Amino acid sequence: MSKKRVMPRASGILMPIFSLQSPYGIGTFGKKAYEFVDFLEKAGQKYWQILPLGHTDGSSPYQCFSAVAGNPYFIDLDKLVEMGLLTKEFLETYDLCDNSKVNYEYLKVTRMDILHTAYRNINSNLDMEVSLFAEENLWVEDYALFMAIMDVENKPIWEWTDENLKRFNPSTIVAYREKFKEEIKFYYFVQYLFFKQWNDLKSYANGKGIKIIGDMPIYVSSNSVDIWVKPCLFKVDANCKPSGIAGVPPDYFSEEGQLWGNPTYNWENHEKDDFQWWIWRIHQATKIYDIVRIDHFRAFADYWEVPAGEKTAVNGKWLLGPGFNFFKKIRKRLGNVPIIAEDLGEINNNVRKLLKKTKYPGMGVMVFGLRANEDNSHLPHNWKRNSVGYTTTHDNGTFLQELESLSMEDKKFAKSYLNMQTGDKYLLEVIRTAYASRADTVIIPIADILSYGAEARINTPGTVGEHNWSWRLCGNVLSDELAKHLQQLVHTYKRL
Q1: What is the mean pLDDT of residues 474-479?
Q2: Do 223 and 302 sit in the same domain of this protein?
Q3: Mean pLDDT, to the nearest integer, of 457-482?
Q4: Number of structural domains the chain divides into
Q5: Are 368 and 493 members of one domain?
Q6: Which of 189, 258, 408, 431 is the least crowded, having the fewest Cβ atoms under 10 Å away?
Q7: How would you class 425 by CB atoms within 10 Å of its CB: exposed for 0-12, middle for 13-18, buried for 19 or more?
Q8: Is residue 14 within 8 Å of residue 444, measured between CB atoms?
Q9: DSSP string, 215-274
């Protein structure tokens, strides 16, 4: 008898929300998001994979003010016009940066001003809906207060003016809740709009037979409500300043490793608390995603920690993570949550054993396998059945960019392996090779489907700059012809 598949044989596309087209400087939950769902359906796809939806502290979706709050930038402004909260004439007074790159600095200056205007136009019925949302989502109370304080302080927790506030002193918190009463209600309103629009979009996708694969960053930002409220769960000092920093040692991406800036977890205290915070966090994710991809899964086996103050990740050390006991607790409380394990990077036997015990699908990335003298696990003919195959990820260059960076020998091997022909309009042979593999699930980034080069790279690990997390789709490129090509491959390789 064959094994029951964790995920049925199917395919999907990786498309970040911020990369969608819109007239408002960043992709939103608006018209183009619904049109993308329609494209997925026409192309025979079953999955839409996105990047984290969190309220970013800057541009990176892996550095957020909250582990669960949504990004206000993704709220569609046209829908607020339909609700009578804004007018087209008002929006036309802003230069909303409809271009090929997201300008996060401009969004930071303008978007919250626009949402404040919408909030001032709230009516009594909507006000009741927002209050009900806050009552049903208790996490929003601390998040809203945190954001109200951040609007005034505009600096990390450990630099806040009030010493008692840094430590979440109960009597101080009560006073600040009263002081920022109106600002707190504003952030309730923002999160209500975010989740209302997202849930409507997800319902539309599910109605078309398309499931959402969401991405969960393993760590939280050093300046987040989660650390402020529960500092004992993280490696921070008495003022919430990180003492142990997450990252990875020198690897394929960087000779100096990657220093992410996020504090590592105090796993001993998580275990004492039966992982209640993590159970809550994953439960929240299951409410908004159909499948959860956990970033940097290997850290549950062992993780790289660097002392605070280091300039690179070189002088870190490996420490043991919570291991399989963590996932046993998750399953006991939440059942078999559909999870994809991002098992990339420096993988050892501890990680392999943990992945095997959890039975979660891991990942294969085609560009990692294109080496003339190796027969490694990332080549599509070696992808396991219970796995998710990718051409590239958001942390790579696009497929064509990576192909050009290969040595002449590796490039010759890659083109032979993939039967690539000069002048291909789309990377059809690359996609065909991925679809023909044994991997139950195949996800192709939209830039690879469109045969884009370096201009469409999403992120360069270990760097901070305006080019990261900013690429947007331009033009009428999601054609019926492309959908037809993809659908033919779906039928040929039984990804139905």
Answers
A1: 94
A2: yes
A3: 91
A4: 2
A5: yes
A6: 408
A7: exposed
A8: yes
A9: EE-SS--SSSHHHHH-GGGBSB-TTS-BSEEEEE-S-SS-TT-EEEEEEPB-HHHHHHTT
DSSP helix, strand, coil percent of the chain (3-state; round to 5): 45, 15, 40
> Taking 80 as the threshold, does the pLDDT of residue 354 lie above it?
yes
Residues 410 and 294 grouped into a single domain: no
318 and 373 fall within a common domain: no
> What SS3 state is found at 316?
coil
pLDDT of residue 412: 94
Which has the closest alpha carbon to 396: 445, 464, 451, 449? Answer: 445
C-alpha dist (Å) from residue 428 to 196, 380, 400:
37, 15, 12
Which pLDDT score is estimated for 2? 39
Backbone torsion region of residue 257, taken as left when φ is above 0, otherwise alpha when ψ lies between -120 and 50, otherwise beta: left
Residue 250 resides in a domain: yes
Does residue 324 lie within any of the structural domains?
A: yes
d(C-alpha 211, C-alpha 233), whole Å:
32
Whether residues 375 and 356 share a domain: the answer is no
Q: Is the pLDDT of residue 421 over 90?
A: no
Question: How large is the average pLDDT for residues 29-44?
Answer: 98
How does pLDDT run across 183-200, given as a tens digit for each residue? 999 999 999 999 999 999
Instruction: Classify 326 as helix, strand or coil.
Output: helix
**Residues 203-212 pLDDT 10s:** 999 999 999 9
Name the helix (H) or strand (E) containing 319.
strand 317-320
Query: Has this prediction a pTM greater than 0.85?
Result: yes
Query: What are the residues whose beta carbons fall under 8 Å from the beta carbon of 159, sequence distance 6 or more?
Result: 153
Q: Strand, coil or helix: what is 204?
A: helix
What's phi and psi for 395, nearest 5 deg?
A: -95, 0
Residues tagged active-site: 295, 342, 395
Domain range holding 270? 210-229+242-340+351-360
